[in-house]
Design goal:
Layout lengths: L1 E10 L2 E10 L11 E7 L4 E4 L1 H10 L2 E2 L1 H9 L19 H13 L10
Parallel strand pairs: 1-5
Antiparallel strand pairs: 1-2, 2-3, 3-4
């Protein structure tokens, strides 16, 4: 499966990224990319991107990573909803879900009796 993802370039503490297409199983640092689509500098927010090629690769079935997906939506290349790129620190277990549901159910006030 092909992925559209970042490939880090730049010095230590000065990140810059290439936007590349490569196989999902390949490491981004390996250098065996299929195509270079553009660059992104997060410090200056400078983005150079070949939008036509990005749309072609997505049409061919290449999946963008969550960060790339959100970046493409910000720049208006694709439309849709943003995806949460950062996972939760601690996932809620089923025990915690049940406990929160019970607390909510117990917290409901009882209706006041009707005076006659």
């Amino acid at each position: 499966m092909l992925m559209i993802r970042f490939q880090r370039i730049g010095r230590i503490n000065d990140p810059a990224f290439r936007i590349v297409v490569l196989e999902k199983e390949r490491a981004a640092k390996a250098g065996s990319i299929v195509e270079l689509l553009g660059t992104y500098n997060p410090r200056s927010k400078a983005l150079t991107l070949n939008e036509e090629h990005v749309k072609e690769w997505i049409a061919k079935g290449a999946q963008p990573t969550d960060s790339i997906h959100n970046l493409l939506i910000n720049k208006g290349v694709i439309t849709g909803k943003k995806v949460n790129a950062l996972p939760r620190r601690t996932p809620i277990t089923s025990v915690e879900k049940d406990a929160t549901i019970n607390v909510v159910v117990e917290a409901e006030p009882e209706p006041a009796p009707v005076a006659q």
